[in-house]
Amino acid sequence: MPIPVPVPDKPSRVSRRSVLRGAAGAGAVGIAAVSGAGAVMAATRPAAAAPTAPEASTAPEASTAPEASTASTASTAPGAPAALANDGPLVVYLRDAATGEMEVFAGAGQARFRDPALAARLLSRARTDVR
Amino acid sequence: MSSHREAPEIAKDPVADSTDVYAFVSPDNPGTVTLIANYIPLQGPAGGPNFYAFGDDVLYEIHVDNDADGRADITYQFRFATRLTDPDTFLYNTGPILTLDSPNWNSRQLYTVTRVQHERARPEVLATGLACPPCNIGPLSTPDYPSLAQSAVHDIGGGITVFAGQRAEGFYVDLGAIFDLGDLRPFEQLHAQYGMNVFSAAAPGVNATAALNVHSIAIQVPISQLAPHGHGHVTDPGAVIGVWTSASRQRVRLWDADRGEDVWAGPFHQVSRLGNPLVNEVLIPLGRKDLWNTLPPSDDKRFAARYAHPELAGLLPALYPGVFPNLAALVAAGTARADLEAILLTGIPSGIVPGFQNYTGPVLADMLRLNTAIPPSAKPNQLGLIGGDPAGFPNGRRVFDDVVTVELRAIAGVTVPLVDPSFTPDAAAGAVTDGLTASSVPAGYLTQFPYLGVPYSGFDTPS
């Protein structure tokens, strides 16, 4: 059964930037997910800037694509590389543990890819740490 | 309701639930079009201490199609951010709120307006840090509410004016009767009543929304910006725009137990949509309503059969035996309702109604269609086009239009002769109504932007 795995799980008030910094040394799940996601997102996003949210320092990320705003099937939003540099949650959804198919949600973007090694690490951590 | 709690999923999410959308040539500023999208249905005015507010986590949009493909060419996006002046009090306000920057107002919302012109790469932020008005609380908290709210009407340049905040519900409907198995009080003695004989005489309609508020997003834009291909002639296809609203949420929602709040991630996906009133409410079946809400109008051919063979057309003769014999015959013959398809999915072509058209071509798309070359009516008829007033629904929709009666009569067959002159509507088709008019709205309407009435206060409308 697929399991949604929030990354990172602690501390709760963590930014993607800090995840990247922290994971660089630890070889943690976060950096592998973000690296893969970044590659896919860079290949799929149209080149457009994100609209500015009200008082952007604290407002939720507001970047949206024309496609994302009007169609249910849009999977990525413009400006997501910039969104990745902002603070906010990053969520990994392991859709199929057997194949390693997963989705990463960061800012207003998402990416779907297969990473069996990362899936195995997530499952391992889930088995040992999830109560 | 027009689109209040109309689908199972969105009924759980009121801040993202679009309830009504309006589009009309501004009567006091006829070089502009006013677009209004309402959200957060059925607000009890006394709903404190956490009074109603837009969702900071919702992307609200009003879309305009000006090239007849059922896809947005211009989208106005609205994003909100809530600010607490003092998080250490439970109070919405700590004294009278006399101005939008009052230090007594503890929980306020600011918003950003962004225009997306889909042929261009970059969205354009039109304005940011715009203040919403507070909710209408009562004579101590919001002593001069009309003036306070009017100060939240913002001129953002380029001929554009915006407002976002609480308004009195302008949509009137006898909800309690209609959803009691199709009872229409003015005709309830004719209802089959399942043999119970509950009603023996006609009764006046009751406006279920008479003391309720909504939250409105209103924007007034020069016609030249919305219909750049138009030349001011009624017969000009470029004069017609399609309008709908949508609300979107990010795909991932996670409850952060440490912070005690939701966190969101991922791209925005549409969770609510509204063009023509009552469509998802009445035409789309329960098992498809959530899907309909996620799709753009350009996908509406998937639902064409629901417009061509509306369930309600079959119910009326069954619920009111002998009252709609011609409609019953039409339904029994399996005749596709080309009149409803035209009104709701393509617009009405030239040559059907003299001097009128709001046709956008063969693409089936549920949008309000507004011919911007038709000027506001000096003497509006709330029945719009079927009342002889081409400036009203289904030519766009004005805040006071009686869309319940118009659509009831259309489904009952009064518009069939537009496409089949040999059809004679039942006498009742031209009279059927839930018994309400614009005067059933106690707050009334404004003669200037944002046109919807001053919201009911919690003090004066405690329940």
Q: Could you explain the architecture of this structure?
A:
- The complex is a heterodimer of chains A (131) and B (463).
- The radius of gyration of chain A is 15 Å and the shape is flat.
- Helices cover 39% and strands 18% of the residues of chain A.
- Chain A has helices at residues 16-26, 29-44, 66-70, 80-84, 116-129; strands spanning 3-7, 90-96, 101-106, 109-114.
- Chain A is of the alpha+beta class.
- Chain A is built from five helices and four strands, in the order E-H-H-H-H-E-E-E-H.
- Chain A has one domain.
- In chain A, strand 2 and strand 3 form a beta hairpin.
- Chain A has a four-stranded antiparallel sheet.
- In chain A, helix 1 (16-26) packs across helix 2.
- With 463 residues, chain B is α+β, with helices and mostly antiparallel strands.
- Chain B has one domain (10-440).
- Chain B contains ten helices and twelve strands.
- In chain B, strands 3, 4, 5, 6, 10, 11 and 12 form a seven-stranded antiparallel sheet that branches. In chain B, strands 1-2-9-8-7 form a five-stranded antiparallel sheet.
- In chain B, strand 7 (154-157) and strand 8 form a beta hairpin.
- In chain B, helix 7 (311-319) packs across helix 8 (325-332).
- The radius of gyration of chain B is 22 Å and the shape is globular.
- The model of chain B has no long low-confidence stretch (mean pLDDT 96).
- Chains A and B meet through helix 3 and strand 2 of A and strand 3, strand 4, strand 5, strand 6 and strand 10 of B.
